[in-house]
Amino acid sequence: EAFAGINNCQVASDPADAAHGVEYLITMRPESRHVEEVLFGEGGAVSRLPANALAIEMSTGDPAATIRIAEKLEETGHRMIDAPVGRTPADAAAGNLLVLVGGEEDAVADARPVLSCRGSEVVHVGPPGSGIKLKIVNNYMSMVGMVMTAETLMFARKLGLDRDTVVHVLQNTTAGRGQINVNFPSKVLAGDVSADFPLRLGLKDISLALDLAKSVGAPLSLGGVSREMFSLARSWGRSEQDCTAMLLLLEDIARCDSVDTPQG
Prior knowledge:
Layout lengths: L14 H5 L4 E4 L4 H9 L13 E4 L5 H13 L3 E4 L2 E2 L2 H6 L2 E6 L2 H11 L3 E8 L3 H29 L4 H8 L3 H4 L5 H4 L12 H17 L5 H12 L13 H9 L10
Parallel strand pairs: 1-2, 2-3, 5-6
Antiparallel strand pairs: 4-5
Helix pairs in contact: 10-11
C-alpha cells in the first residue's frame, strides 16, 4: 500500500504478477527459503518471468542456497547475480548503499545501471556466490566486533573508569580505529611481518589484561580465546614476527594455500 501512490509503480498481486514482462527481478527476503518460495513456490515469479530475464538476489542468505537458486534459474532459462548490500538504513534511503556482487561479467554489466540506483558503490567481487560470501565475512567481522567493543567497555566499567573518557581515548587509538585500517595494510598485507610489535609481546599484554580482568570479576571471553591464539605463535615459529602475523598463524592452522607468504 505504501507504494501505491508512487508514479509509475505497479503493485502486484503475487510474485508471478510482479515478474510478468520484466527484464530485472529483485529479491530481498529475510532468508534463502523465502527467496526460493517467491521464485519457485505457488504463484512464484519464475512462472511468468520472461526468458533470459536477470534475477538480482539481494538478500543476506545462505551461500550454498544462493548458488542452488542460481542453478535452478539457469535451468529455467533465466540469469541471476547475488548482490547483497551493506551500510546503514540512512544510506539505503539515500541510495548510498555498498553493493557486493557475485556473477558473470556480462550479467553484472547488465545489472550495473539498476544496482547504481540503490548503491553509490558497486563492487564486482567475483563469480556467482562471491557477493554473498563477502557479505557474510563482513557481517562476521561486524558481529564479533560488537562483542569485542562491548567486552572492552564492560572491562573499563568494572575498573571504575569514566565511560566518556574511555570512549574518547579508544576512538583515537590504533585499537579503536581498527587493525584492518591501520596496521594490517602496511604490515602483513604488504608482505612485511618484521616486528613493530612482536606476537610474544602481544601475549604478554593480553595476559596482563586477563589477569586484571580476573581481579575485578570481568569475564573476557574473546580475550581468553585470543590468548590461546597468541600462545600458539611460539610453536608455529612466529613469536618474533609482528602481531599482524596473527593472520599467517591462523592461515597456517587453517591450512590455507598461499601464493605469497610474507617472511619476517
